[in-house]
């Protein structure tokens, strides 16, 4: 077994495969999406609270609707249409209350100027929310399209490899990705392999300790290459060369171990045939030498 302080830096995160149900990556993504959608309405509430606080100390902004419309636009752009419409509803409610109190001193009883301003904001807020939501949706779709293109490229790359490839998740120590060639070599389907914990069924019993040690070496940041034997689903064995390297994220943290498996059955067969040929040649030359010596005597 040889080791080196190096690492693989694939350009596509699709090597990890889709997150499993309950995966901490999936949970973090859901929480992040909820926070993104909540930012706009929360900002609107903060602005409303600040405006109320200013009014309580005698400071009144002449056109609070403009400021609040900006928060609606922000909500729609960052959180999507629903987030924008929630902010729009908050804005309309505050503006209606503000202009009625400023004009007549009674909630929802408007002077002409206040009624005009309230109607204007009530019409503008949903339009601004929809505009921000449309822009957000187009950006999201463009991002999703790019991710899908990268995923398809990655899957095509994996499928084109002549050697088997597997990815072991660093945190859960399970197979998160395999390529078609590995399935062809071992006789297992992707569904039978993905999600399996260490040790894997293709590892022979007598090799498992060695393979687990090499996997841990990779998780510690080293690259490993070794000769080994794999077991097919039908129980037959074949010789392989296993190369493992760590996969790191943008921060340098090791997230997975990438393993390539090269079937060297034909190479071993040719090497065996060559050795047999050399042995026969050596035997013939030795016999010929003995015959010559006997004749000379």
Major sheet characteristics: 6 strands, antiparallel
> Cα-atom Rg, whole angstroms?
34 Å
Give the neighbour order of strands across the main sheet: 1-4-5-6-2-3
Measured distance between first and last alpha carbons: 53 Å
Structure annotation, total helices: 8
Low-pLDDT regions:
1-14, 18-23
Q: How many individual domains? A: 2
What is the subunit arrangement here? Answer: single chain
Which geometry do the CA atoms define?
Answer: rod-shaped
Strand content: 5-15%
Helix and strand element order: EHHHHEEHHHEEEH
Give me the count of strands: 6
Percent of residues in helices? 55-70%
Can you describe what's shown?
The protein has helices at 24-56, 64-79, 81-103, 112-160, 180-186, 190-193, 208-219, 265-296; strands spanning 2-4, 164-169, 175-178, 223-231, 237-248, 254-263. By secondary structure, the protein is an alpha+beta fold. The protein has a 6-stranded antiparallel sheet with strand order 1-4-5-6-2-3, sandwiched between helices. Helix 1 (24-56) packs parallel to helix 3 (81-103) and helix 2 runs antiparallel to helix 3. The two termini are 53 Å apart.
């Amino acid at each position: 077994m040889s080791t080196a302080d190096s690492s693989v830096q694939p350009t596509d995160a699709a090597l990890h495969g889709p997150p499993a149900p309950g995966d901490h990556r999936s949970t973090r993504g859901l929480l992040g999406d909820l926070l993104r959608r909540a930012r706009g309405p929360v900002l609107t509430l903060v602005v409303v609270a600040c405006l109320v606080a200013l009014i309580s100390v005698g400071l009144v902004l002449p056109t609070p609707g403009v400021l609040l419309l900006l928060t609606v636009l922000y909500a729609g752009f960052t959180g999507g249409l629903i987030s924008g419409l929630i902010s729009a509803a908050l804005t309309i409610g505050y503006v209606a209350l503000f202009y009625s109190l400023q004009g007549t001193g009674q909630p929802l009883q408007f002077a002409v100027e206040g009624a005009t301003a309230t109607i204007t904001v009530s019409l503008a807020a949903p339009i601004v929310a929809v505009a921000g939501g449309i822009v957000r949706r187009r950006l999201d779709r463009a991002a999703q399209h790019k991710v899908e293109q990268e995923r398809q490229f990655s899957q095509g790359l994996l499928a084109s490899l002549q050697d088997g490839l597997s990815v072991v998740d660093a945190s859960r120590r399970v197979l998160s990705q395999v390529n078609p060639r590995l399935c062809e070599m071992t006789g297992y389907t992707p569904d039978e392999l993905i999600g399996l914990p260490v040790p894997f069924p293709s590892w022979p019993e007598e090799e498992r300790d060695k393979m687990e040690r090499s996997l841990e070496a990779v998780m510690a940041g080293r690259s490993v290459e070794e000769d080994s034997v794999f077991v097919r689903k039908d129980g037959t064995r074949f010789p392989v060369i296993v190369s493992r390297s760590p996969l790191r994220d943008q921060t340098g943290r090791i997230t997975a171990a990438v393993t390539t498996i090269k079937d060297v059955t034909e190479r071993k067969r040719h090497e065996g045939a060559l050795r047999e040929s050399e042995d026969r040649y050596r035997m013939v030359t030795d016999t010929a030498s003995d015959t010559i010596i006997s004749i000379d005597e």
